[in-house]
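ZP: hey, is the pyridoxal-5'-phosphate complex queued? I don't see it on the tracker
AM: it wasn't, my bad. submitting now with these inputs:
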Amino acid sequence: MERIYFDNAATTPVDPRVIEAMQPFGWDVFGNPSSLHAPGREARAAVDRARAQVAALIGAQPTEIIFTASGTEADNLALLGTFSGRDLQDSRIVTSTIEHPAVLETCRYLEGHGVAVTYLPVDGEGLVDPDAARQSTVPGTRLVSVMVANNVVGAVEPIRELGRIAREQGVLFHTDAVQAAGHLPIDVRSEPVDLLSISAHKLHGPKGVGALYVRDGVRLQPLIHGGGQERGLRSATENVAGIVGFGRAAEIARSEMSAEAARLVALRDRLIEGIVERIPGAYLIGPRYCRLPGHVSVAFAGQEGEAIRLLLALDEAGVAVSSGSACSAQHAGEPSYVLRAMGFDPFRARGSLRLTLGRFNTEGEVESFLDLLPGVAAGLNSITTRRVGQA
Ligand code: PLP
C-alpha cells in the first residue's frame, strides 16, 4: 500500500509548482539581493515579487512583510521586538494557555525579565473567551497575542473580537497564523491585527522561511543586528530560494483556498464520522465546526493512554499521524498542556490522535484509512472496534 500522510499540521509536502519556481535559484540566479549589479538586481526582483505574493495572501502592503527563517522566529520578533529596549516596569503581555511554544516560551523568557504575563484560559473546546481578554487587558498591557488557530486541536479563535478589545485599550495585537494562513481567509485590511506570523512549510512551501506582518506604523526592535536587510528588522542575506518558494506557495494558496478548504472540510467530516462509527468510545476533541478545514483530533474514551501505541501501529501500517503536535515527539507520553488547559485530567490529556489533511490527500486515502483502522486498533487488544458495512 502507498504510504498515507495525515500530518499536514506538522509540515506539508512542497507543491511541485513551488519546487519549479525555486529551481533557478539553486544555481542560475545566485546573486545577493543587496548587490547593485545585474545578478544582484535579479535576486532582488525575485524577493520583491515574493514579498508581494505573501502580502497579497493576507491583504497587506509588501512593505509590511518582514521575511524570517521560520514561524518561530516571526513569533519571537513580534513579542521580543515589542518589549525590547523599553522600560519593562509594570508592563504586561496577555496571551492564551494554548499558544504554540514559540509564543509561550517567549512569554516565559519575558516573564524572567520582569514582564507580567496573563495566560487566558480556554473552554472545553479550546476557545478563548473574549470577556476574559477584556478583563485582563489592564493598564500597562503592551501586547495581546492569541493564535488564529490551534495546532493541537484545530480550534479557530475569535481573533476579530480579541483584536478589537486590544485596539479599544490602545494595545497592540499579535496573532500566530502559522496554522491558518493559506487555509483560512485572513485580511489584515479588515482585521484589527498589528502583527501576524506565517510559516511557509505549513502551506506547501519550503522549510526554513517565515514572515512577520508588521502593520505600517508599528515600531519593533530587531532581534538580529547587521546589514539592515528587511527594513532593519531582520539583518542577514536573504534566503532567496526559500523566499521565492514561499511567494509561489502563497500565490497558489490564495487562488485555490476556497475550493481546497471546501474539499478538505468534506474529507475531514468523513474522517470524523468514520472513526466514531468504527471505534465505540471515540470522540472528537475541539470544536465540531469552528475548526481548521483539514484538522481532526480524536481520543478513545477510557483508552486515552493508548494513543501513542495506536500512532506507532498506524505508522507500521503505512499511515503517518500525530499524537498532538510535532513538538511533542520529545515529550511523547506526557500529558498535552493544550488538553490540560481544556480541562482534561492528566490521564485523558495523554491520549489524543491528530490527523491533519492537506492539498495532496485524496478521498481514496481517507477510505483506505477507515478500512484499515479497525484492524490496526483491534491489534492493540485494548481498543474496542466495530466492523462497518459487514454483517
Ligand atoms: N506556531 C504554530 C501555531 C505552529 O503550529 C508552529 C509549528 O508547528 C509554529 C508556530 C512554528 O513554526 P516553524 O515550524 O516555522 O518554526
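AM: back. Residues 317 and 376 are 8 Å apart (CA to CA).
ZP: great, adding it to the tracker
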